[in-house]
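Let us practice reading a record.
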Amino acid sequence: MVRDTNKQSHGSRTNRRSFLKKSGVLGTGAAVMLAGCSSNEGIQGTADSTPGEVDLSGTKITYWNVFGAQSRAATRFAQNIVNRVSARTGAQIEVDYTLPAAVVLEKWRNAFDQGNQPVIYDSSTALDVSFFDRERLTPYSELPAGPGRDTPLDPAAWEGIQDILSVMKGGIFDKYGGDIWELPVQFHVFSPFIARKDHFDAAGLDFESDFPPDDYEHLIEVATTLQEDGPGDVGFQIYGNAGDVMDTILPLWPLNRAGEQEGHVLGPDWKTVNFDNDVWKQATRDYVDIFREHGLSNDNTPNEADETAVPAISNGTWSMSQPSYTIHPNLVQNAPDMMSDGTIQWAPSWSFDGNPSGLISITGSFGITSAPPGADEREWRKKQMVAVELVNEFLKESNQMRVPENTGQLPARSDLHDQLERKAHNGISAQLEMFNTNAKPFIAHQNALFMYYTGTIQHFQNALRGQISPEEACDRAAADTRDQLGL
């Protein structure tokens, strides 16, 4: 094994043993946010209803569901919750499961402008900011109270989501007037390591000390040994697919190394573009070198998607990678025995010198829409009450405890995190370790879609193809982003 001594070390990181010993549990109530005064004034209950209750039977709403597209388990999970709310309220909830957020946001905007909108949707908060105004969304402070309650959310649920709301407020909502525009029910942290323990054993590696790798140099050393001496074909797979190149590994490594100021795509003031700084250029060079210099990823790398990790890790083609945790339910389905006995294991990403270990994606954040022009305000208020009940159902303790295995995410309610079962695959432990290690949300700029999915990715893909250097890719991404943002 040859260690590349030209690469720089990035300081201390959390080791595997300390990660496995930590519970990774946040205290509740990290932020104090007051629920606004919600009212159902003007909506009459039925003759046999208790004060504050409203007859919602026959009320029709449309729900655009995004997270269900991740797996069949996620779809079933969402549908079961919808069925329970429909049965309890008598409301009719029509669900559209066919809308992946990053692809359709422009279509969503057009649909909203034409008055063709759902009553409720779930999506990824960092990409939804163009909806954050009262013409499109009703903020939490103005939502109707739920039947039999004085507030929209159940008090236990409201208290339980304060930690993730604090992240959303400081990193997102404060940039858009401070209102709570969306309500989280789940989130995950990009991107943990995953590996086949049996491959480490076969290659003569010490799994306890070699996984996760200590730093980039150790990663190259371990991946090379896995590929040369282990049973797999790929030592460490990276991703070049349009939907993954800028939302799995590459945007995380600069953050691990340098923190928010220089490691995020934008500086904290959102006026500084970081793509062409030294941190990003070195991280991009390291990323591309895994494929082009060291040959540790497969020939399809410029087009590879992280969903491929499910069959490739399951069948042993790949030994190690760093995909989104949202593939977890499909891994459990594909390789149940290897997940349950720890043959396949997750581990947290790096954190150097106290910098963030992960990027938080609130991919399960619910927006409740305002009445479109011409709609009956009273009837729309009832529709919103059904939507509020849907969020409350997702936030019930019993449903929150089912989130990890069904959707590959963490419950939004951090008061329940210490009750989550730790399993041999270490998925929950890895996600909580990353969340607790100063994790930060994706940049929630109006042009986030451009920066992460549509405007810069071709440059990084071209670097993976060898058409331009990694440094040139960073320069071009920075120039395009400055033009897009008018900087």
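A brief commentary: The CA atoms of residues 271 and 323 lie 30 Å apart.
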